[in-house]
TrEMBL record:
Species annotation: Cebus imitator (Panamanian white-faced capuchin)
BP GO annotations: ectodermal cell differentiation; embryonic ectodermal digestive tract development; endocytic recycling; Golgi to vacuole transport; lysosomal transport; protein targeting; protein transport; retrograde transport, endosome to Golgi
Lineage of the organism: Eukaryota, Metazoa, Chordata, Craniata, Vertebrata
Chief site of localization: Golgi
Keywords from the UniProt entry: Golgi apparatus, Protein transport, Transport
Stated family: Belongs to the VPS52 family.
InterPro entries assigned to the protein according to its UniProt record, in alphabetical order: Vps52, Vps52_C, Vps52_CC
Top-level division of the source organism's lineage: Eukaryota
Gene Ontology annotations for the cellular component aspect, listed alphabetically: cytosol; EARP complex; GARP complex; membrane; perinuclear region of cytoplasm; postsynapse; presynapse
Name of this protein: Vacuolar protein sorting-associated protein 52 homolog
One Pfam family, short name: Vps52_C
Amino acid sequence: MAAAATMAAAARELVLRAGTSDMEEEEGPLAGGPGLQEPLQLGELDITSDEFILDEVDVHIQANLEDELVKEALKTGVDLRHYSKQVELELQQIEQKSIRDYIQESENIASLHNQITACDAVLERMEQMLGAFQSDLSSISSEIRTLQEQSGAMNIRLRNRQAVRGKLGELVDGLVVPSALVTAILEAPVTEPRFLEQLQELDAKAAAVREQEARGTAACADVRGVLDRLRVKAVTKIREFILQKIYSFRKPMTNYQIPQTALLKYRFFYQFLLGNERATAKEIRDEYVETLSKIYLSYYRSYLGRLMKVQYEEVAEKDDLMGVEDTAKKGFFSKPSLRSRNTIFTLGTRGSVISPTELEAPILVPHTAQRGEQRYPFEALFRSQHYALLDNSCREYLFICEFFVVSGPAAHDLFHAVMGRTLSMTLKHLESYLTDCYDAIAVFLCIHIVLRFRNIAAKRDVPALDRYWEQVLALLWPRFELILEMNVQSVRSTDPQRLGGLDTRPHYITRRYAEFSSALVSINQTIPNERTMQLLGQLQVEVENFVLRVAAEFSSRKEQLVFLINNYDMMLGVLMERAADDSKEVESFQQLLNARTQEFIEELLSPPFGGLVAFVKEAEALIERGQAERLRGEEARVTQLIRGFGSSWKSSVESLSQDVMRSFTNFRNGTSIIQGALTQLIQLYHRFHRVLSQPQLRALPARAELINIHHLMVELKKHKPNF
């Protein structure tokens, strides 16, 4: 079927080409030109072609027989030749119809051809126009690049001109002297704000002119004369103003701090002088130093003189030492001593002077104290004097740094130029006073006042007084150590036989030591000092030796122990009121008191119960050595001890309690000793019971007379004093 279709198509092509040849012969030019013929293209049906191979026909026929239409035609029995003619006839009809349609549309086709030709012409002209546009755009792009280059160059020139204009403007502004500046400098008072503003402007212009002159700017010569005249006028007005302020400090009854504080508002005046007229600045600084130096010296000399008039009239003298006896007599012309030497060794309320509230309290006003007939110890006067010195020195140092624009060593030098004479006068006064001062507590309090004031000065960032504090401490420490050594020596050289009658009560020298030591220990706790503790240790050793020397004057050991216990107890009690419980002094006297108390209890129990004590110790020693059989020979002694204790223990305990209460001034201490004695007696009797429980003494008839240990404890509790 496919082969038939192919063959039919080839036949139609031949018919069409033949028809076309006829039409071309008939139509002539309308068909495109006479005699125009093309070769027939048969494709695969061209048997004249070298490429046609008959063997392939069978393959095509076999393939076409597989077609569905061919199969259907073969099944229905259609005659192919007839069918081929029918198809050919139909194709001829269609071909004729197509030819007629083509002839009918020939004019339109010719018109279409003309239109296409016209369009080609239009498109050619547009191509020429677009080419012209492209060439124009190329030239415009080059022009734009040229304009960009010109714009960049113009921007560079603009920036350069603006930079030059700025520099030139600054130069001109720095050199031009406005009329407002001239008017303010020449006519305005120095206290007006506009004078200060224009003075700063003048200073800036003078600095600018100096800088430009160094660069060789010729225009500076035009304004140099004007600026110099204005500078001279400003310096003259400033000099007169500041000197008048400084001279106002000298007026009597003037509070110099008020005009001094007012000067800080005009500190730029001195800065202007320092940069433009150093000779005048030096003149003002020297005048200030001279004026303030005299004012401070006069003020403090007067204040010190009036302050010392309100000191206590009774002060410690060289004979008011710890080891000096109260019965010592002086010459006829000597001054009367203190009513009681114990007051110079007692701290009392004097320690409040170093408390935070009292340390920075307002200074003392001497004439007010004199009107009120008030008197003060030296440390209170010392605090007031040095607090005033500290306060004024801090204010002066800060003023100097701010007004005179100095710092570091230069500020220290200027400060000492102002305050040096005052500080030297204060040191000389202190040195003179300490020469005859024998009040160790006052000197020690002054040391701690200085230590605290030094910390305050450090917090205020005023290091100018550091050297002065060191000089004051260099005067106070040696004097304090000397007074302490004098007291140590006085205790060491004290002869107990010259102290009058013996008494087991606490000695006044030990009381002095207790008060004095507790005072120094309590003061030293805030800012510990190892040297102080060493000196106190030496004094403690001498006092302990002194107590032992006095105790040796008593004939009986019991009286010696009573004296030692009373003194140790008194010193311990006073120390514990002010010193810490773990201080070396407290621990030392606690150990001494415990040792002497134990010894006294044994001494106290010895007369009534000495035989019982001796037997218990001997028996326990024999039992420990394994010689308990030797106790069989002690039956008579044991019987006597049992009956003797049972008959006399109550009266002995009563007598013991009364003796203890009479011997000790501190009832609490006496009560403690009685309790210790009764406790030791119970322990002794309990040990006696254990000895009698040994097999060698267990059958002793007298054991039935032993007092029950619990009954003894109940009875002894009745003798316990209650306070």
